[in-house]
Inverse folding.
């Protein structure tokens, strides 16, 4: 049995077969939510019957989650786990001063500043708090934490601040459609709930780009993982781990896995890590003997059975390919903003789908054709008055945790200006 967060009494014990995509999703959600858990991998039918109370390893009731109060959930959804933890709520107001979509660093910061300054604030998140930063095993370059802090712990501290100041949090709720009117922004959630607010901040961040390879969906969560995968580190002891990507998230993930795995390989399309990675991480990776960097290389194929077993690596310089055995492939490449809703209501986006704000909306000194006001857009304001963007979802943003927090706070200051002056 592999224990997670062993310094804390576990709130959840999870029983499931190795390679279970749902088992990974549950571990990832709990880890990023800073919930202590035990993961018990089931190796035989006998163990499945004895420990999980199911007929065999292929039983559709797996994985099984047992909570500290004895509650048993079989093959649960993340929404069901959220409800069992007591985190799922419905809106308590017919209208809010400020609705924030996305609870990464930018959204959490906006919620703290909005609620602390007297705005009736609602924070809406489709998954869990922290965004991509929440999946990081260690954030070391964030001001005020000289020893670093895990993304999950930072998100949990922010949650406490948000709740202390009185903002509402809706977890497991995804915005799917917008209805933008002056001083009344309407947002529709996936379950049909309509959120009305006088001003809105979009802080939905980005999703990691996919590899676009055959069998990708088949292996997702069963050897192929998107993100830093901090929840899986304890399971990689003695294994070969492959990390794809050259940003700080990939670098921190490689360092984290190197503590348990026998070998960590970083695969990048560029010539070196120096142009994409903070120097302190470049130096640490170079000094870690079980980390290897493969420059100008990409993943060309995935292979396996029920789980990933092997990848094909292609050298972009020579065109030559070779295979490498691994059951652990973590992808942290680029980002794709989830902003189709903005396109549908005519809000200006750039070619990559990022929301364009403030001065970037102007051509010379001319506002966009659809801009209805005499004034120019505020710095973080989109082409719809009263709709602001903060963090990674915004065109031209600096992809760092600290800058996202700063933009969240700045967006609230601009919301106040909008609510007062229009």
């Amino acid at each position: 049995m592999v224990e997670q967060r062993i310094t804390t009494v576990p709130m959840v014990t999870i029983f499931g077969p190795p390679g279970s995509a749902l088992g990974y999703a549950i571990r990832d959600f709990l880890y990023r939510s800073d919930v202590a858990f035990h993961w018990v991998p089931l190796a035989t039918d006998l163990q499945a019957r004895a420990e999980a109370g199911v007929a065999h390893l292929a039983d559709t009731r797996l994985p099984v989650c047992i909570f500290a109060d004895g509650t048993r959930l079989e093959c649960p959804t993340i929404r069901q786990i959220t409800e069992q933890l007591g985190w799922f709520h419905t809106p308590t107001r017919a209208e809010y001063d400020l609705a924030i979509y996305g609870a990464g660093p930018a959204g959490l910061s906006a919620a703290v500043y909005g609620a602390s300054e007297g705005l009736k604030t609602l924070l809406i998140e489709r998954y869990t708090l922290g965004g991509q930063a929440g999946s990081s095993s260690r954030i070391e370059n964030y001001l005020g934490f000289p020893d670093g802090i895990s993304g999950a712990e930072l998100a949990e501290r922010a949650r406490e601040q948000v709740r202390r100041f009185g903002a509402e949090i809706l977890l497991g709720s995804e915005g799917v459609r917008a209805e933008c009117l002056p001083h009344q922004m309407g947002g529709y959630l996936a379950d049909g709930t309509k959120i009305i607010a006088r001003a809105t901040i979009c802080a939905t961040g980005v999703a990691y780009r996919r590899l676009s390879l055959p069998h990708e969906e088949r292996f997702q969560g069963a050897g192929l993982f998107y993100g830093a995968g901090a929840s899986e580190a304890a399971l990689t002891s003695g294994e070969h781990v492959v990390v794809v990507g050259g940003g700080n998230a990939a670098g921190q993930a490689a360092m984290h896995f190197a503590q348990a795995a026998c070998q960590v390989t970083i695969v990048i399309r560029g010539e070196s890590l120096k142009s994409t990675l903070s120097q302190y991480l470049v130096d640490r990776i170079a000094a870690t003997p079980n980390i290897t960097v493969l420059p100008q290389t990409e993943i060309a194929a995935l292979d396996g059975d029920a789980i990933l077993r092997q990848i094909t690596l292609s050298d972009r310089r020579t065109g030559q390919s070779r295979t490498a055995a691994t059951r652990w492939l973590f992808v942290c490449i680029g980002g794709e903003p989830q902003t189709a809703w903005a396109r549908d209501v005519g809000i200006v986006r750039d070619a990559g789908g990022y929301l364009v704000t403030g001065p970037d909306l102007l051509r010379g000194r001319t506002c966009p054709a659809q801009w209805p006001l005499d004034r120019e857009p505020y710095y973080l304001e989109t082409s719809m008055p009263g709709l602001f963007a903060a963090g990674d979802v915004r065109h031209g943003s600096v992809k760092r945790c600290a800058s996202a927090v700063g933009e969240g706070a700045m967006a609230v200051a601009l919301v106040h200006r909008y609510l007062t002056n229009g």
Q: What stands out?
A: The radius of gyration is 22 Å. The longest helix spans residues 401-421.
